[in-house]
Amino acid sequence: VYRNHKIGLAIPAYNEERLIGPTLDSIPDIVDVVYVVNDCSLDDTAKVVCERAEKDPRIVLVEHEENQGTGGGIITGYLRASEAGCDICVVT
């Protein structure tokens, strides 16, 4: 919580197994919750996110059942952050 505001982070992801780990490792403590929206990746993106989520409870994996593109991932991330009561949602 930053100045009484809950901060969420939405990360749309498609075939990002090589980059998603370092990205998640670099998230500052000011962020309260992280929604990684896996957009039907064909690689191990979801596996890497789950491994990081075991170490960092702020990380939440959201799976799309069909590919919706970057915009769809952003919308899903924003909606999840809104449902969780986030005052601010940032997309990366």
UniProtKB/TrEMBL annotation:
GO biological process, one term: protein N-linked glycosylation
Signal peptide: none
Pfam families: Glycos_transf_2
Domain Glycosyltransferase 2-like: 10-82
Protein name per UniProt: Glycosyltransferase 2-like domain-containing protein
Biological source species: marine metagenome
